[in-house]
Amino acid sequence: MAFTNQFKSLAAVLKHYQIHYKEADFEIIKTATLNESVRQDIFFTLKEVAYDVSEAAICENLIYPVLKEAWKLYANIFAIWSHAALEYDDELTGIPDYLISKRSDLGKIIFDSPLLAVVEAKKDNFSAGWAQCALEMVAIQKINNDEQLGVYGLVSNGEIWEIATLKNQQFVFYNKRFVIEELDTLFNVLVSILESCKLQLIK
Question: Domains of the chain: which residue ranges?
């Protein structure tokens, strides 16, 4: 169930929820070395697999392998969820492609808060992707009940990744698009996002 029944653009979502928009440059604050086998598998996929036939194929073949590899570095702190329902109210209910949350002390099967990041796959329409992702970010912020806690949103077609944050009624869109052909940079962007999320939890 998608979040975008009535909002067709990011601007429409931000206007509805009275959220301010700005742009900024993304800063890589943490680096790590990508496992070589993962690198080879991604480049094999780009060359040999028809990964762009559907959003599900994009998720399975390109988004999840890179995201999972970054998450492994933080698996003791965060949980990663695939197609887990987000439910706040009738308007803010749906199923994002991936979510990052704090890992529950009760075990890996427990969906806990705060929720810290959401990833949305879009085959070709980034405008629709951001309308959906922004709604998911608003839902997460309301579920967390903490506007001071920054929430990351990512929209990707597998090849191109765009990033934003929502905090204190301000949506910050990062100007630079990251591409899977520059895999080391993309990986370190994801690592930096998770590092930022970790720093928020230990303040």
Answer: 10-201
